[in-house]
Design a protein that fits this description.
The complex is a heterodimer of chains A (about 100) and B (about 475). Chain A is about 35% helix and about 5% strand. Chain A has a domain of about 50 residues: Histone, subunit A. Chain A is built from 4 helices and 2 strands; from the N terminus they run ααααββ. In chain B, about 40% of the residues lie in helices and about 10% in strands. By secondary structure, chain B is α/β, with parallel strands linked by helices. Chain B starts with 5 loop residues before the first helix and ends in a 13-residue tail after the last helix. Chain B contains 16 helices and 11 strands. Classes of the chains: A mainly alpha (about 100), B alpha/beta (about 475). The interface between A and B is large, with 53 and 76 residues.
Chain lengths: ~100, ~475
């Protein structure tokens, strides 16, 4: 498999948007160079011929982990909400979404 | 061939009533008070909690009952292990002041075994780093030389043990974050088989790689702690539902009859003084009756590249939860999307941002196959490479880290050079295998060198009895002039 082309500043800006990170112009310059260097190092992997080798997502795979569907103690609601930045009527409060009034 | 077992002896003294747990706790709290300003091993010292737990242990002894195998033994916890109502920050601004509503399973097991929690130790932010310098609370310093890093990411836990602040500590190891700081600080650190220690309550970095494990002064004390924290947990769906190896009982079995392979790829990039120590350790194992040969495991050369695609990929997903809604920092903005971005931009440090972006990139459309999926195929190859080696060898051996502790600031400007610190430790994480670092003398600069012993899944007993032989043959390492006198 051919190694992809070098990472660009525009791609880093796009990825930062996807990851909900606001970067300054200086950060964009710095991170573009640093991330491109890491990806260049990874070119040894990207260029290996591994056709037919199955991927491993988990080395010690376990499947169908089930437990009896029985009621049991859960986290204390007030203790959980007590850690939230903003709460209203026992719910997490956030600013407006999709432009509607809060 | 008996090694000192400070934690084991402490627990026995408390269980028998010869020493009080409160007195032991006070002694360690005083050592931290006197010495930690120079080291910064701790983000938080839980003095009141430690005293309360110690008093409860003493009361259990007074009532004629057994508080457990870690009775009164002080333990330091990496600050990514959830402690109910006690701040757990991952050394990140985004979790500053957060008090989890539950305890990690390992914290519960420690308490049930009679241990006393001294506090939460410093770490690289969200365990992303190899020097503890990405911490938002400032770096930890190496107790053997305060101008050097302690390694990372569990640098605070390693330094706490090395400095004598705590006889035992817990860390987490995603790509070497227990073993590498153990090596650089001259203590024992073990990464167990994936799934043997519950991750419930461990703040996730890369879920398919993360594993909690012990730090101790000696192999026997690490085994004591592993036996307490290991075992199936229904709260972690990746926890192995099969018997966990019990290691304490096999520690003195020796290495006669074992075949041990010195991994040539691990020696290739290591400094000459480190290589010389590894060869001495191999000679000691041969003298103790093992058959020792050099072996090539060529697949491990691709471990670093594969890891720095897989781990950031998983991290970018795991760290999406820090959005300013349910816990931790919030930076207000006009709408929720802007609030999420403002919060994350202010709350995460540079290394965490780099890894989130790298992970988002390698998982994005158009690049997933070239990078992430390709790395998962390399992971298969590494597992196959180890499997071939373990057909001939019981244990593999190499350095834990390519060099002794480097200087503070030396690698912070060049992420790739920092990542290379993990080149010998990463393959075990990718394979899910156990590995342990044991101190073996010092390099030309007088700083500790760690020998790493690797084995196949669930071979903790074998690698730790081998580690005990290495430990018994190890040259003396001067102890740092801090902490509780032994």
């Amino acid at each position: 498999m051919a190694a992809p082309k070098r990472l660009t500043r525009d791609e880093v800006a796009h990825v930062a948007g996807l990851a909900r990170l606001d970067l300054t112009e200086d950060e964009l310059d710095l991170f573009t160079e640093q991330l491109a260097t890491v990806l260049d190092h990874a070119a040894d992997v990207a260029s290996l011929d591994l056709d037919g080798v199955p991927p491993t997502a988990h080395a010690m795979s376990v499947s169908n982990v089930l437990r009896p569907d029985e009621p049991r103690p859960v986290l204390d609601r007030d203790e959980v909400l007590g850690q939230a930045p903003a709460v209203e009527d026992h719910r997490f409060r956030v600013p407006s979404i999709l432009g509607e009034a809060p | 061939m008996t090694s000192p077992r400070p934690a084991y002896h402490l627990a026995n003294a408390v269980r028998s009533g010869a020493r009080s747990a409160l007195e032991v706790a006070e002694e360690h709290l005083a050592a931290i008070e006197a010495g930690d300003s120079a080291i910064h091993a701790f983000n938080l010292v839980t003095a009141d909690l430690a005293r309360r737990q110690a008093v409860a242990v003493d009361r259990t002894v007074a009532d004629g009952q057994d508080p457990g195998p870690l009775a009164g033994v002080p333990v330091a916890l990496k600050d990514n292990l959830c402690t109910r109502a006690v701040p757990t920050t991952c050394s990140s601004r985004i979790l500053a002041g957060w008090c989890p509503p539950y305890d990690a399973t390992v914290v519960t097991r420690l308490r049930e075994a009679g241990a006393v929690v001294l506090g939460k130790t410093n770490m690289d932010e969200f365990a992303m780093g190899s020097s503890t310098e990405t911490s938002a609370t400032g770096p930890t310093r190496n107790p053997h030389h305060t101008g050097r890093v302690p390694g990372g990411s569990s640098g605070g836990s390693a330094a706490a043990v090395a400095a004598g602040f705590a006889p035992l500590a817990l860390g987490s190891d995603t790509g070497g974050s227990i073993r590498q700081p153990a090596a650089l600080c001259g203590v024992v650190g073990m990464k167990p088989t994936y799934g043997t220690v519950s991750r419930y309550g461990l703040v996730a970095f890369a879920s398919s790689l993360d594993q909690i494990g012990p730090f101790a002064h000696t192999v026997a004390d690490a085994a004591l702690l592993f036996d307490v924290i290991g075992g199936h947990d229904p709260c972690d769906s990746t926890s192995l539902n099969r018997p966990t190896p019990r290691v304490l009982s096999v520690l003195d079995d020796g290495v006669a009859g074992l075949t041990i392979g010195v991994v040539s790829e691990f020696l290739d990039g290591a400094a000459p003084d480190v290589v010389a120590r590894i060869r001495s350790a191999a000679d000691a194992l041969a003298a103790a009756g093992a058959r020792v040969e050099e072996v090539s495991v060529p697949e491990v050369r691709f471990g670093l590249s594969a890891y720095y695609l897989i781990a950031p990929g998983e991290a970018s997903s795991n760290l999406a939860r820090y959005d300013g809604v349910r816990y931790g920092l919030r930076v207000d903005a006009e709408d929720t999307a802007a609030m999420n971005a403002a919060t994350r931009s202010a709350g995460f440090g540079a290394e965490v941002k780099r890894r989130i972006m790298l992970g988002t990139y390698v998982l994005s459309a158009g690049y997933m196959d070239a990078y992430y999926n390709q790395a998962l195929r390399v992971r298969t190859r590494i597992i196959e490479g180890f499997a071939a080696a373990y057909e001939r060898f019981d244990v593999l051996l190499g350095p834990t880290a390519p060099t002794t502790a480097f200087s503070l600031g030396e690698k912070t400007g060049d992420p790739l050079s920092m990542y290379l610190s993990d080149v010998c430790t990463i393959p075990s994480n990718l394979a899910g295998h156990p590995a342990i670092s044991v101190p073996f003398g010092s390099g030309d600069d007088g700083l500790p060198v760690g020998v790493q012993l690797l084995g196949p899944a669930l071979s903790e007993g074998t690698i730790m009895k081998t580690a005990a032989v290495v430990e018994a043959a190890a040259p003396e390492l001067p102890a740092p002039a801090l902490g509780v006198p032994a």
